[in-house]
Amino acid sequence: MQLGTLTWSPALDHPDLLAPSTLATLRTWAEQHPAVAGAVHVTEIDPGLADTAALTEAHDLPLAASANCVLVAGRRAGEERVAAAVVLATTRADVNTAVKRLLDVRKASFLAMDRAVEESQMQYGGITPVGLPTPWRVLVDSRVPAAGDVVIGSGVRHSKLALPGDLLAQLPAAEVVEDLALPRPG
């Protein structure tokens, strides 16, 4: 696999580059769908470049090949509803309309960093939809499956995953949603 100037290898061959929950999810997913093992790759990066803008600039990655995963929550009748929204880096999650409607809550907001890290068991800047807690919904913008190979977090700041966007949309618990994202202001 070639994306930017990074060297990519099969993710399951490098468990040290994955958060424990990401590794467990990939192993289970690959057992159920053997093609996953050869389609999900990982690369080691400088943790200081974990943020999308820094990584794409430093490693000649097209911004359209990066996807971001943000954690969002809202309440309805005393029940908290949490979801991950996965959108291309050229867009931003439509939290105030699309995510709020999908969660069926009055107000949706991003999880605070400390809470996102604690509850996802992943590092900030590396949070990925691969390995999130089971009850959380994984909302994938419909542009992601059409994007070809996409770069996402690995659960840790010192690596990134790359996989076909259409495979990401097949992740257990993934829900592909039209217009989950809005274009980034230019």
TrEMBL record:
Q: List the InterPro entries hit by this protein, alphabetically.
A: YbaK/aa-tRNA-synt-asso_dom_sf (IPR036754), YbaK/aa-tRNA-synth-assoc-dom (IPR007214)
Q: What is this protein called?
A: YbaK/aminoacyl-tRNA synthetase-associated domain-containing protein
Q: Which organism is it from?
A: Actinotalea soli
Q: Which Pfam families match?
A: tRNA_edit (PF04073)
**Domain YbaK/aminoacyl-tRNA synthetase-associated: from-to ranges:** 47-168
- GO MF entries: aminoacyl-tRNA deacylase activity
